[in-house]
Amino acid sequence: MALFCQTIIPTLFKEEKMNYDEVKLKNTHNKAKTIAIVMMAFPIVIALIGETIFKKIIPDFPPSIYNTIQYVIIGVTAVIIVLMIVFRHRILAGAMSAVPLDQADKSKSLSEEDQFLQRLLSSFLITFALCCSVAINGLVLYMLGKDGSVFYGFIGASFFLMLVQFPKYDDWETRLKHFLD
């Protein structure tokens, strides 16, 4: 019984040692959440701009040209969604840098943890910017053909992609732990 109390019980209540700075992770994640919330207003602003300004001042395009342009923009949007996934994985893997060239020397002097947190934030920003471009594609189509269903479909798709890509703390923590192990 004494052996059990000395060896098993302490391991049950042993705190898990963190091998990363939780404060840095929380701060970086809070920055990302704040940016995400602000950027999620972008599709709404695009919808308001489309309804108030472009509905009145831009004439309709001929249907034959509009249909061709619509298919091209839908294809471009599909490519953007694929690029969103590819860029995110390549940046997180370190195969692609999202650091401007003039700051490359500064980022090399950071710890591995800080570099990975910077990659998490960069991949998030690029992903959300590409989500916003989906809404812009919808606005372009709306300007050309005044088709509200397509416009709001693109706005909805942009908002949905932002919800799916919203930075989740547990995901970031898991990625950081996996990276540091």
Topology (SSEs and partners):
Elements: H1 2-12, H2 22-39, H3 42-57, H4 63-93, H5 104-108, H6 112-145, H7 148-165, H8 169-180
Helix pairs in contact: 2-6, 3-6, 3-7, 4-6, 6-7, 6-8
Kindly describe this structure.
- Helix content is 80%, strand content 0%.
- The protein has 181 residues and is mainly alpha-helical.
Number of strands: 0
What is the makeup of the main sheet?
none
Helix/strand structural class: mainly alpha
- Rg over C-alpha atoms, rounded to the nearest angstrom: 23 Å
Strand-residue proportion: under 5%
Uncertain segments: 9-17
Average pLDDT number: 80
Distance between the termini: 35 Å
Shape: elongated
N-to-C SSE series?
HHHHHHHH
- Portion in helices: over 70%
Please report the number of helical segments. Answer: 8
How do you describe this structure in short?
The protein has helices at residues 2-12, 22-39, 42-57, 63-93, 104-108, 112-145, 148-165, 169-180.
Main attributes of the structure:
8 helices, mainly alpha, 181 residues, single chain
